[in-house]
Amino acid sequence: MTAPIPAPLWTPAELAAATGGELIGTPAASIGGVSIDSRTLQPGDVFFAITGERTDGHDYVAAAASRGAGLSVVARARLPDMPEGAPLLVVEDVLAALEAAGRAARARSDARIVAVTGSVGKTTTKEALLLALGADGPTHASAASFNNHWGVPLSLARLPRTARYGVFELGMNHPDEIRPLTKMVRPHVAIITTVEPVHIAQFPNVEAIADAKAEIFEGVEPGGAAVLNRDNPHFERLAASARAAGIETIVGFGESPKAEVRLLSVALQSQGSAVTADVLGETVSYKVGLPGRHIVQNTLAVMAATRLAGADLALAGLALASLGPPPGRGVRTPLAAKGGEALLIDESYNANPASMRAALAVLGQTPVGARGRRIAVLGDMLELGETGESLHRDLAAPAEAADLVFCAGPLMRALWDALPASRRGAWAPNAAELLPLVAGAVRGGDVLIVKGSNGSRMGPLARGLAERFRADGVPAEG
What we know:
By secondary structure, this protein is of the alpha/beta class. The protein has helices at residues 12-19, 61-66, 94-108, 122-134, 151-157, 178-185, 206-213, 235-244, 293-308, 313-319, 353-365, 388-393, 412-418, 431-441, 458-468; strands at 22-24, 33-35, 45-48, 71-75, 88-91, 112-117, 139-141, 165-169, 189-192, 225-229, 249-254, 261-268, 273-279, 282-288, 331-337, 340-347, 374-379, 404-408, 424-428, 447-451.
């Protein structure tokens, strides 16, 4: 007996109907995936030739065709520039067509949908939801941090017909960005992990950030639920916004006695945590595969959404033991340093005051080797507006978790100046100039954490350390 042939993600006719486009040429009979990058496109994918800030996808239609694209979606105005014989779906606007495909995929889906936003922890929470819900049935989630005006419709367009659950991350750094995204996603459960002064340069105050996050409620399906951080000072403001959007089921999570999903006990360990929680009246014990109290907090939101989506709590708890870090969010790499092995914790994906404090707390919980030190390597936190200098200076107390602190960037100078001389490693105007200073200080037994905003270029610094202290134990030159 042969296994049934899985239904295609799309047929060209379905895409044409969803987008209102015109098919030209001979497309593949079925479409297996959706891509906006010709370099990672797989044979049989549909390629949406989106025009971005730096590149125009229409310039890569020939490359997509050579890699086996089953179809390319292109703008009618660019039709004369397209390679002869390439199968095309011609539309007026490619991004609008991608949005239409995303809405069509959502409309045909019977999956229970969870959407996640928040100032901190969106991607890790999304990955934890993928594990937790995936233990109960086929689950689709947005890749990487695909949480903006093109990432969300792309993720929706990839939603398989057979998915039982879907998880989507929604991001913003201005008002009115989440509103159109949540109306595309139409979640049954909306999570706001927390509200913090992130992207504060674009807002008059933190309350305005909370209001922008609350836009997620406007897309929640009738009878849906909001999951909110009960320990955050903006809980009541968010709950009021949820009620104003017609949401009756509001679930708080955290340590507060008022939380419907409440942390009862936690054992924080260097590689993870053991948790016991009351989840809407049911006591659940589980392990979390990532360290940090902030991770534990967000798993409470995951357990709340799991219960609200109708998935199995016990299976979710078992799955969270295998939670690992996405790139740049806590990946651990051994360093073959002078005198023995050191450990690099790469938290360089992004940074804000809340995530900096959380990362420094993780550093403080991580054991060091013999004669080893805890070393914080920190780059500027950006988009903090007029409060930037003071928010960097305020890291002096949480930075006490480190024996030695290295700082990169003009804003981090404020922290550097606030540190006692005994804990100053070095300051440099940028990450590139700081790299050799950090490398020169590393010795066996040390634990280093590297963190900063994307624009501070701490990611290359972390990769540079990993390269300099290769597995063969010989630091690279330069």
